[in-house]
Amino acid sequence: MNAVLPYLHSYALCLLRPRVMLDWLRHGIAPYPDGEHELVQPELTGQLGVSWMFAVIQGIVRILLANFMVQLFLHYQNEDNFFYSFVDVEDGLFPYYVLLFTTALDLVFFPILTLIVTEFWNFILRQYARWLKVEGDHDDIARDITTVALSSHFFLVLPVIGVVFQQIAWVYLLYVGCRHQLQATRLLSIVILITPTVLMLMSVSVFSLAIFYLIVA
To answer: What is the 3-state secondary structure (H, E, C) of 154-208?
Structure first.
């Protein structure tokens, strides 16, 4: 457990003090120069591993809540309840089995999907770093931003609303990274953040026009 604590501490600092951690990654300025606290410098695999741990906790909580709802359903179903008499037990349990299956898939593919999202954002941020002529290795700058932003997965431990808070924190940490690492203005940082949405809309529009042309032609 003691070996994990430095990673958790660094993970928490990425969420609470992203600018300090970005300075550590880029300029080597440690958060605690006097060595008061034992920290591990954030890197992709470590951040991804801790994020996966929180995803597992989310999966367990989701299953426990679903199991509670199933037990509640069976309890009322066993009683002579008028409403539940119209519900078949097997049909009522089908969503529970689906939830178990999808939760298992989420946990298995979490690292792969997270890496895909991270690499996509690395590409976007790297291009903007080149266009803005930011000093330093553009790949390292982009990777530092996304590495710190991975700490947003801490919010997955919150039942139901955790995913929403995680997405908000992810966007916020990317915004902080754009402002701090790329020295972008507020407006440009927002433009960078909506770039994937614009690209997706453009792709859908081109695809729709192509389908329309094939149908009409």
So the answer is: HHHHCCCCHHHHHHHHHHHHHHHHHHHHCCCCHHHHHHHHHHHHHHHHHHHHHHH
DSSP annotation of 86 reads G
Query: What interhelical angle do 162-181 and 18-27 show, nearest 10?
Result: 50
**Contact criterion met (CB below 8 Å) for 152 and 173:** yes
Closest CA to 18 of 133, 127, 152, 173: 173
Closest CA to 147 of 124, 190, 115, 179: 115
- pLDDT tens digits, one per residue of 99-108: 788 888 888 9
pTM: 0.85
The alpha carbon dihedral of 49, 137, 41, 20 has a sign of negative
